[in-house]
């Protein structure tokens, strides 16, 4: 009798323990971080500045993203577990608003359950989404957030879910300083930087730190400014050899126009914010000579790459113009995500983040991409030269 009672007790205890174990596993599964990808599609979100102050850049990036998604889907999709899964792109406009960007990221991660996000375009909007994507365990790749601290936490450690396809400001500023010294042989330079965001001020700081000559003056302008004549006149009186203008084409086009009209013929050098055909339209083709800017993508330099040639052909067929830098970077961002998914053989968002951190020699329009320990891309950088509003020469800086 006692024997049977003991056996019965042990049996009940065994069943109870097993139930607890399975319950614990079930609980762990439902509370695990990240989105689990199921079904025959892979959801990728787009958190982009499609309107507002940076809408021009966002629209270009949207075009590059769409070309990449269409191309991948035409080829059957992304390979996971030996099966091709097509991409479902979910597009949302953050309106160049930090608050909206944070909200959009939360919607994409928590409601739409995306595996990864492309965007935002700007550092400020990108930074605003970081708390929400980190909490959800969903990685993002920004095509153009260039602030050095964008991928880093305050303690200097790398943000697990934050990646970019572009160079950070320090690298661009350092490269421009070397080019101005070594290639243009300029010794006296004035800096005229956009202080509306960390983009212009960060580039100015990096340039100043690396330039081997003398920075004779540093002045600032703001987004939306129209009259730059007073500052340009002061530069002219200081007999500068070149002017470094980190900022965006919207204001720099006018700066170039007013500088040339004031008789300032020295080289004007800037960054990838100038890499847009609208720059020459604003400045006027006749004024847009001896203009240089650092860029991660040059259609002229990339013409020998099969990947770049295919992208440029597709872009021109679809949109009727030459592919701009920001479209190329956005295109590469999608392919970085594809490579990460295939590397990990999983579209679960946590695994995608792990895959992005391990990327090596991924073929991109802007050169082969390897992601470093700070989630920055290692790839070539080019300086484009404009003559009469057209790209006349490219120089790869190593």
Automatic annotation (TrEMBL):
What does UniProt give as the signal peptide span?
A: 1-23
Keyword list (alphabetical) reads: Signal
Q: Which domain of life is it from?
A: Bacteria
Keyword field contains Secreted = no
Using the record's annotation, list all stretches that form the Leucine-binding protein domain: 42-388
Identify one Pfam family in the record: Peripla_BP_6
Family stated for the protein in its record: Belongs to the leucine-binding protein family.
Descriptive protein name: Branched-chain amino acid ABC transporter, substrate binding protein
Native source species: Pediococcus stilesii
């Amino acid at each position: 009798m006692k024997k049977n009672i003991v056996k019965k007790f042990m049996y009940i205890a065994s069943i109870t323990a097993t139930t607890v174990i399975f319950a614990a596993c079930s609980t762990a599964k439902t509370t695990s971080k990240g989105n689990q990808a199921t079904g025959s599609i892979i959801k990728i979100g787009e958190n982009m500045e499609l309107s507002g102050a940076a809408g021009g850049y966002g629209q270009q990036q949207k075009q590059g993203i769409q070309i990449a998604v269409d191309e991948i889907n035409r080829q059957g999709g992304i390979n996971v577990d030996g099966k091709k899964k097509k991409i479902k792109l979910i597009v949302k406009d953050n309106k160049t608003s930090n608050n909206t960007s944070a909200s959009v990221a939360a919607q994409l991660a928590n409601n739409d359950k995306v595996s990864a996000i492309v965007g935002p375009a700007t550092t400020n909007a990108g930074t605003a989404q970081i708390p929400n994507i980190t909490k959800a365990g969903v990685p993002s790749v920004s095509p153009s957030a260039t602030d050095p601290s964008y991928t880093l936490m305050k303690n200097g450690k790398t943000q697990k879910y934050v990646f970019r396809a572009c160079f950070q400001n320090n690298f661009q500023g350092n490269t421009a300083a070397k080019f101005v010294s070594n290639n243009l042989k300029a010794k006296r330079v004035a800096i005229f930087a956009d202080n509306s965001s960390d983009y212009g001020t960060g580039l100015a700081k990096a340039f100043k730190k690396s330039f081997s000559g003398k920075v004779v003056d540093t002045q600032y302008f703001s987004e939306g400014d129209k009259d730059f004549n007073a500052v340009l006149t002061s530069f002219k009186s200081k007999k500068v050899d070149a002017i470094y203008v980190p900022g965006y084409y919207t204001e720099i086009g006018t700066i170039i126009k007013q500088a040339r009209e004031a008789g300032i013929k020295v080289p004007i050098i800037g960054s990838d914010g100038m890499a847009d055909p609208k720059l020459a339209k604003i400045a006027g083709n006749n004024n847009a000579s001896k203009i240089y800017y650092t860029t991660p993508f040059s259609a002229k330099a990339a013409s020998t790459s099969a990947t770049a040639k295919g992208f440029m052909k597709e872009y021109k067929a679809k949109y009727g113009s030459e592919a701009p830098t920001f479209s190329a970077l956005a295109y590469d961002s999608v392919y970085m995500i594809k490579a990460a998914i295939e590397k990990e053989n999983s579209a679960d968002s946590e695994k995608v983040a792990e895959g992005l951190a391990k990327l090596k020699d991924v073929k991109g329009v802007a050169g082969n991409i390897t992601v470093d320990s700070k989630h920055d891309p290692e790839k070539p950088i080019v300086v484009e030269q404009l003559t009469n509003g057209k790209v006349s020469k490219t120089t790869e800086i190593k």
